[in-house]
Amino acid sequence: MKSMDLQEKLKKSGLTGNEAIVYLELLRLGSINGSKLAKKVGLDRTLTYQLLNNLIEGGLVSYIIKEHKKHFQASDPINLLNTIKEKEVFIKDLIPELKRLEIVKETEQEINVYEGIEGLRTLMREIIKEKSFCSFGATGRAYDTLYELPRITKELAKKRHKARIIINPKYKSHRMLEMKNIESKFLDIESEATTTIFGDKISIHMIKEKPIIIIIKNKEISESYRKHFELLWKIAKR
């Protein structure tokens, strides 16, 4: 019964059932040649030699030559740890490689199109949620269209909300430039559309007879537009 328990434990340690039988027999018998061992364990001679070779590779069996024959003997059971240590070293080397792999996440994105005054109000609410924004192609029309915008800009100033805008020099005298915490530069580019970058969103709005506002939520796109803004900011004039 004890032998069966040891076989099961050896199997859990990584040996096959037959390898466990052969190894236990060698521990009991000491040095023995392969043919006699096969008879002792009741296994085919060829199979027994295959098992012995497996155990030799695992460091659990060694042999000596006596009278021109190999005599096999069990090695110290502590060598059962060899495969575990080998795996441990392998896994320790593997872990940094696995950690270096970039987790590919599907980019969260959303596109919304709004029309009219309420669409502008929606845009303002989204911008207010962020600590800052940058905008180019500003015309001041949103400021003129929304009666509450001057009040909103005062609230933003209290919250130290910061903004940078690039506008055409022809709007140099527009009252939107009087807003606090807003830094402005001028670039002589004609554009009817205003692009604003805030958080992981960008908006493109055009205000003529009927305002139209497109808000895109996409981190990669917003970062690309932010880089584009920075290039324009460098060449724009104060």
In words, what does this structure look like?
By secondary structure, this protein is α+β, with helices and mostly antiparallel strands. It folds into two domains: 2-79, Orthogonal Bundle (Arc Repressor Mutant, subunit A); 109-235, Endonuclease Chain A (Endonuclease, Chain A). The protein contains nine helices and ten strands. Helices cover 46% and strands 24% of the residues. It starts with a helix and ends with a helix. A hairpin with a 5-residue loop joins strand 9 and strand 10. It is rod-shaped, with a radius of gyration of 39 Å. The chain has a seven-stranded mixed beta sheet with strand order 4-10-9-8-5-6-7, sandwiched between helices. The mean pLDDT is 84.
CATH topology of the largest domain: Endonuclease, Chain A
Q: For the record, what is the CATH homologous superfamily label of the largest domain?
A: Endonuclease Chain A
Query: Structural class, please?
Result: alpha+beta
Largest sheet: 7 strands, mixed
Q: pLDDT under 50 segments (min length 5)?
A: none
* Count of DSSP H/I helices: 9
Mean pLDDT across the residues is 84
Strand order of the largest sheet: 4-10-9-8-5-6-7
The share of residues in extended strands comes to: 15-25%
Shape: rod-shaped
Percentage of residues assigned to helices: 40-55%
Counting copies of identical and different chains, the oligomeric state is single chain
Gyration radius, in Å: 39 Å
* H/E topology pattern: HHEHHEEHEHEHHEEEEEH
Number of domains: 2
Could you tell me the number of beta strands? 10
